[in-house]
């Protein structure tokens, strides 16, 4: 389990360390790796700047260092694209985390759309 704010590059390093440890212990095969990622959905592309500003303001309020600000913001399609580097790094489970004041129904709907887009992009065709 990787905490929120873990960049895709750091996640890649963590996945490698996990693999090395498993190999040294005689374990084979992949090991699931999950990460929490703060997500803010926007209903339309023109709403993305305001959504990004909300997230930045929250990080400022929480005093989160810039290098730990590993969130995603945008429409579900944009969020799915932004998550790809973590998947490429070997993270197998992405746990999208809403902001405290998020509309939970809208958030779950957006997360469902992201999940469908990511499944479709990884489903073998042929």
TrEMBL record:
InterPro entries: Luciferase-like_sf (IPR036661). Gene3D superfamilies: Luciferase-like domain. This is Luciferase-like domain-containing protein.
